[in-house]
Each structure stands twice: as structure tokens, then as C-alpha cells.
Amino acid sequence: MTDGPVLLHGARTPGSPRAVDVRLAHGVVTEVAPAGELEARPGDEVVDARGATVMPGLVDAHVHWSQWAQVRRRVDVGHARSPEEVATIMAAAAPGAPGLVVGHGFRAALWSRPPHKDVLERAAPGVPIALVSDDLHAVWLSPAGLAHLGRDHPTGLLREQEAFAVMGELSALPDPGELDRWVDAASAEAAARGLTGIRDFEYDDTPSTWVRRAEHGLSLRVEAAVWGPWLDATLDRHHQTGDVIGHLVRLGPFKILADGSLNTRTAACHHAYPDPDDGHGALNIDPGDLRDLMVRVARHGLHPAVHAIGDRANAVVLDAFAHVTGPGRIEHAQLVASEDVARFARPGLVASVQPAHLVDDRDVAERHWPDVHARAYPYADLVAAGARLELGSDAPVAAPDPWAAIAAAVARTGDERPPWHPEQALDVATALRASCGGHLEVRAGEPADVVLLDEDPLHADPGTLRAMPVRATVLAGRFTHRAG
């Protein structure tokens, strides 16, 4: 899928007035030299960078890509402030909609009343409705929606494993060819924001799905994670994390859910939630079983990637990693006990974090983690302790815009309010490195995944970072985005 050689003339390096020429050929950065030293060769496409900043392409370290592609075809209820408001939105969308009416994005953590199937029934009698929560840990169904999916439930609000099963069924509703077209469109939009890679945690046989898609060409480099139902088949094929399984596709880590989420109040915490019904949240797996599973997959060359949001869940996962040989990841790490921060510096461990969540959930954290929210999203403490951070979006929980994530990590706010716990802010360079493989310079010998920016991000304020104009994106030496 690589095109012919490309010679970028006169690009700037981040934070420096130094201009460079960069040659890309055969999917690799072949040369980087001071501006004016590289001459065009026959067959080169010569691009005058005109002083644009060149840096490695950005990677979203945590997405659910099929769901992101589908979300934009679902009814958006993300701004609704009550169950009744959601029901009104869904009722307005119901006329003329064929079959199940699917919405996305409800956020019940700040509502005074919980979602209930009867609220949907009163607004839209007999209409099959399914709503996926913003955090992907709950599904809210109307009575007809429950019947449509062959289920019965006293409230219609399904959480955790019950919800994941329904989300899998909803993701299977589009024709695979149609879903692939939606994925292609989403990938092209992501490339326009400078993304060259994603790590996809879609709950599916994700590696097989991406190998099939790669046969028709991709706009992003993909690491495709493995989930429990497909573990044995993966081991039978002797595949390991990092193996090339298709063009631009590698096998990703093995995903495990240690707990739930903040918005659904299922994140496992040392403290109790204010609502007694929520208790301390819950672990989704026994600690001993978690340890044994992590040890097993690591022994076969699969890197464990463990979802942990509450401070108890993070402690349990860190305990388990003490028995694991080799690399691994903790996904989210939203609330961390002070005594556990230093344990994230374990060699080979990545703290995969999503800064947009701290912007979206600061009010939720203050309500449901009232005494401990100063320890939420502790990015600066993790970096100071020697942890390796990677930034992502958790799309569709947040849009897969790397610049929104970088700006949130730096500014700790997304509106007119002052920064939330600014002592945990990252400097721009650290946030950028956590988004593009650990370094900011394009280097010879590395994949030809690069981005050209109209602004130097190291000299940009948060507003400029958030709206960063991307002039061009190159994946494996091929332009996937060009502005103008």
C-alpha cells in the first residue's frame, strides 16, 4: 500500500527552528538531514513542507473502533440530564426507524433518578429501544427492546457482563460490508487529525476482523486485542503480541476486565460510594483467578492488558503483575492509592490513560469519589515515579482526537473552569511523547508514519493544541490526509 518515494523539504523539528529534509521510501524513513542536503531522485514526489512541524504520527492507545464507527449512526443522548429527557429524545427518533432504535451516550451518574424501562415505555409505547451508556458499561432497554433481544429484566438497566453481551449483539446488527465502510470513513477522519495507529479493544474476534479489512487497504496501523472467548484459538495458532498478522495489522495484547467504571459506579474502590446500593463497586474477576490468567497468557507471549479504574482494582492488578514475566498494560488507571503509584514503574508496564475522561468526569468524580478525587487521573505523579504513560481516547467514550487528549492532559480542563487538580498536569512534551511512541523526532529506519502540523505543538497553548491544524498525515509512506 506504499506509494512511491516522498521527499519532504524544509520541515521544522518540534521546539526548534532547525529545518530538515526527510525521505520516505518503501514504508520507512530512509534519511533525515539538514534542510537542503537531500536532493530529489527520479521518481520522488517532492513536497515543500513550507516550515510545517514534522513529527512521528500519533497513536490512540485504546479504542473500540467498530463501536466508534457505529456511534455516529446512533441517536446521541449524551447531553440529556434526566431519564425523561433521554426518553423524549428517543421517542422523537422512533417514528420511521426500522426495528430496534439505538441510542448512545447516556450519563446517569449525576441524575437524581436511575434509568428504568418504564420511563422509555411511557415516552414511546411499544417501541424497541436500546441505549448504550457513555462509558460502555451499561445498556438501558425498553420493555419492547428487551423482548426484541430475547431478554427479561426488572428495570431494563443491564450492567457489566450482561451489558457487554447486548453490545456485542448490537455491533453485529449492520451488514459486515456496511460496517467496514463506516470503519473506513472513521479511519479517514482520524487520519485527518494526525492519527496513524490505534490499539483496538473491540469486544469481538478483533484480529480476524482487521485481517479481513486489511485485504482492502487501511488508513491506520492497527494492534488488534484478544478477548477471552478467542484466547484458545489464538494460543492454538501460536500467535503472540506484536506478531504481524496482516498488512499494517499486528496482534495486540490480551484484554481482561478487573472492574467496572466510575459512571456506572462499578469501579472497585477501597472506599464506599455515597449511594449504599453501589457499595464499593465490584471486581469482575477473583484476584487469584486474575493472577493465574495473566501468568498463563504471558507464558504464551501475550501481553496482559488489564482494565482497572478504581483504586482497589489497580492495587489488585499491580499485585498480579508481580507474578508476571514480561510486558503488560493497565488500561485507564483512573484512581490510584498513593502507596501504589510507585508500583507503576515496573519495567515493561504501560499505564494507558485517557485524559479526556478527566475533563468529562470531574463532576462525577467529585460526587462519587468525594474524599479521594485528588488521587484521580494522577498523571504527574505517575510520570514522576517513573511510569510509562500512553494516551488514548477509549473511543467512543471520547472522540479519537489525539489533540483533545493532549490538551486535556496539559490543561486539566475543557471549558471555562479552572484546571482540575492542576498539580497532576503534564507538560506538553511529555504528553506528546505519550502519544507518538516516546520521542518527538522523525528518525531514519523507523516506519514512515509522520505528520505535518501548521503549528509547533511545543510552543502552543492548550486552545491551539486542542484545535491543532494538521497539514498532512503519512502512513507507511503513503498520504492518508492532505489539507489543501
TrEMBL record:
InterPro entries: Amidohydro_3 (IPR013108), Metal-dep_hydrolase_composite (IPR011059), Metal_Hydrolase (IPR032466). It comes from the Bacteria. Pfam families: Amidohydro_3. Residues 45-480 form the Amidohydrolase domain. Coiled coil: none annotated. This is Amidohydrolase family protein. It comes from Actinomycetospora flava.
